[in-house]
Amino acid sequence: MSTSAGPLEGVKVLELGTLIAGPFASRLLGEFGAQVIKIEDPNGGDPLRKWRMLYPEVGGTSLWWAVQARNKKSVTLNLKAPEGKRILQQLAREADIVVENFRPGLLEKLGLGYDVLSAENPGLVMVRLSGYGQTGPYRDRPGFGSIAEAMGGLRHITGYPELPPPRIGISIGDSIAALHAVIGALMALHHRQANGGKGQVVDVSLYEAVFNMMESIVPEYGVYGAVRERTGASLPGIVPSNTYACKDGSIVIGGNSDPIFKRLMLAIERPDLADDPALAHNDGRVPRTREIDDAIAAWLAGRTIDEALDVLNAADVPVGRIYSAADMFTDPQFAARKMIEHFKWQDGLDIALPNVTPKFSDTPGGTRWLGPALGEHTDEVLAELGYDPAAIAGLRERKIV
């Protein structure tokens, strides 16, 4: 386990949320030293505890939980009870950041909106993640990452034109929103600390976070009325950049900068294309995309992945195999960067987790402990607020915690 304090040492985060977007945001803060107190419903806690593969397989805890909740303290609290609300307000008084991903308006209905939580802590930053944001005609609709991917434009441009738009195999919409949430939280903290500002609300909409990744689709439509469509494995308008078949599988090649394109054509024994002045720049290559892709495909057709990688790496062309999890566990680059770490969990199970990223030279982040049991830190946190054992026992008897 890591002993590094991390660059966010001293920052206190209160997490009010479940599943993916909000908890992923606070997970990232916790990985770099922030103290994260995760508030969970006493009746079962975060549903993510039971998502995907469990250990043990029957009645166990999600393996995902080990990483999504690492470095967090789990406190159970009934937010519908007046005593539970008072405890939350006590915790908020000491917090720098509150991360929440309930439906807009829910905290206000509970009497725990930003106006209430910041009344005694004007420096509080509240990060609010929701499907459509805190305003607008869609604010009250349920919003999941998959819907955000569709509305934000990602699904429309993903896949092959002759097939319905597929989903990416992870909850990418939630994760993109979480990254925006962390960026927003840190910018708000900087404003408070460096510019003498006060706390504020950071409003993160899942669909807007995805929309923010859509590169040039807005100006292209605004100026030319052009709607970018699905193009399979290629990157439209940037040539060559595609997935290509070898004898034993596929590789990805990015040969789209001008000098790389020339090196790629020489490597695949096509000096005629390398020296063609019409192909010297990307705008000249785009109309001849099929010709270029066909030339690359023809050269690869008789070669294995390893043979192709040897030649193209020697030519300094960006190229790579398509990794599965099994490939990651045996790859020397993953090993050199220590991107997969092993820990002991629960009954001594050896569990592999992804290492934290990015890497810091002086104050690195790390895993201090794995995802906690439900309410594991309730007594500890309440004691820090001044509750004695008898008072905590009374709260437990009344099902407040």
Automatic annotation (TrEMBL):
GO MF: CoA-transferase activity
Superkingdom, taxonomy of origin: Bacteria
Key words, A-Z: Transferase
InterPro entries according to UniProt: CoA-transferase_III_domain (IPR050483), CoA-Trfase_fam_III (IPR003673), CoA-Trfase_III_dom3_sf (IPR044855), CoA-Trfase_III_dom_1_sf (IPR023606)
Protein name per the record: CoA transferase
Phylogenetic placement of the source organism: Bacteria, Pseudomonadati, Pseudomonadota, Betaproteobacteria, Burkholderiales
